[in-house]
């Protein structure tokens, strides 16, 4: 497979200038590291799409003073709109890599993604995202082991995937252009746009693989490290995942069956979770109780999606003047 001659790293941002200011120098350093480790030069750029109409990330983005940084404001609200703007700005690059503005890449991250693409002839590459909490965790979070993200931890580099998130994702832009895949506007306020996007890619023949070495840290503020946020997040993720299942199914019987499965799976999770949570309360096991509550909220999200109800965690509140 031919070496990419141009690489862009894209990130959407919304009113988090401090995170942006910390991330950008790290990404610039990643490009230099990758060129040394891989042994070839490539054109490089960073694309910052600010989804705040007020441009709150402008100063942080331009603080690097690097001419390879492209900053734009996407005033249309929603994560799908911001990611599609990044696709448009990165259309002329061979490779576009997505990372979130509240993440921090491990050394060699970009080089690992590019190497995996070449070694495994992949059209897209996804890597691990591990949470790093910015303070001491409360007992409920610790007991539920929420600070450990073991999703796909057992997978080796080269393992083929059906879907992936965009917080650590490499895309071959020639393949994206050829398949005509975009981020669906129906997910703009719900999340799940990345699973639907990559699900469409693989349905249309693209090869998506895992790269275990391309790790990024997800910086989690303490406002998100609590029972209420985690359970709401569990419901919204489950709802979005089930909704993607439904939308990727063929219209007609297959989609009806998929909806029924989402409802049935969700009810089973609610029953299981309710039993675990009750047992945990009776036995004084906070770990069992938190695990059960997670099942209940995840099940509720799946049932809602099966019934056509969407959770919208990214719905914005009006800004107070």
Keywords:
10 helices, 321 residues, 3-stranded mixed β-sheet, globular, alpha/beta
Chart the SSEs and their pairings:
Layout: E1 6-13, H1 17-38, E2 43-50, H2 58-62, E3 69-73, H3 79-89, E4 95-99, E5 103-105, H4 109-119, E6 124-126, E7 129-133, H5 139-143, E8 160-161, E9 168-172, H6 173-179, H7 193-203, E10 208-210, E11 216-220, H8 227-248, H9 253-283, H10 286-306
Q: Give the CA-based shape.
A: globular
The stretches of 5 or more residues where confidence is low (pLDDT under 50) are: none
Order of helices and strands: EHEHEHEEHEEHEEHHEEHHH
Q: What separation lies between the terminal Cα atoms?
A: 53 Å
Structural class: alpha/beta
DSSP strand count:
11
User: What does the radius of gyration come to?
Assistant: 20 Å
- Mean pLDDT equals 92
Task: Please tell me about this protein's structure.
The protein is of the alpha/beta class. The protein has 10 helices and 11 strands. It has helices at residues 17-38, 58-62, 79-89, 109-119, 139-143, 173-179, 193-203, 227-248, 253-283, 286-306; strands at 6-13, 43-50, 69-73, 95-99, 103-105, 124-126, 129-133, 160-161, 168-172, 208-210, 216-220. The strands form 2 sheets. It has an 8-stranded mixed β-sheet with strand order 3-2-1-4-9-6-10-8, sandwiched between helices. Helix 2 (58-62) links the parallel strand 2 and strand 3 (69-73). The longest helix has 31 residues, at 253-283. The radius of gyration is 20 Å and the shape is globular.
């Amino acid at each position: 497979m031919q070496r990419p001659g141009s690489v862009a790293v894209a990130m959407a941002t919304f009113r988090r200038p401090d995170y942006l200011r910390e991330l950008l120098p790290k990404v610039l350093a990643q490009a230099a590291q990758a060129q040394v480790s891989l042994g070839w030069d490539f054109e490089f750029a960073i694309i910052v799409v600010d989804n705040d109409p007020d441009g709150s990330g402008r100063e942080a983005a331009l603080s690097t003073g690097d001419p390879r940084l492209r900053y734009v404001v996407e005033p249309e609200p929603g994560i799908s709109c911001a990611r599609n703007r990044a696709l448009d700005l990165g259309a002329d690059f061979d490779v576009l890599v997505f990372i979130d503005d509240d993440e921090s890449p491990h050394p060699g991250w970009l080089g690992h993604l590019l190497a995996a693409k070449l070694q495994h002839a992949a059209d897209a590459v996804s890597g691990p995202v591990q949470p790093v909490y910015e303070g001491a965790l409360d007992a409920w979070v610790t007991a539920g082991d929420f600070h450990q993200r073991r999703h796909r931890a057992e997978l080796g580099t080269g393992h083929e995937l059906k879907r992936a998130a965009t917080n650590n994702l490499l895309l071959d832009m020639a393949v994206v252009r050829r398949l005509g895949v975009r981020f669906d506007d129906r997910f703009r306020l719900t999340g799940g746009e990345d699973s639907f996007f990559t699900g469409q890619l693989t349905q249309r023949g693209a090869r998506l693989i895992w790269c275990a070495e391309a790790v990024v840290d997800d910086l989690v503020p303490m406002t998100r490290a609590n029972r209420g946020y985690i359970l709401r997040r569990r419901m919204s993720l489950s709802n979005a995942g089930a909704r993607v299942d439904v939308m990727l199914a063929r219209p007609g019987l297959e989609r009806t069956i998929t909806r029924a499965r989402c409802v049935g799976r969700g009810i089973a999770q609610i029953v299981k979770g309710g039993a675990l949570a009750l047992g945990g309360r009776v036995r004084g096991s906070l770990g069992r109780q938190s695990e059960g509550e997670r099942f209940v909220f995840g099940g509720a999200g799946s049932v809602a999606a099966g019934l056509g109800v969407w959770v919208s965690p990214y719905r914005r509140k009006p800004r107070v003047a």
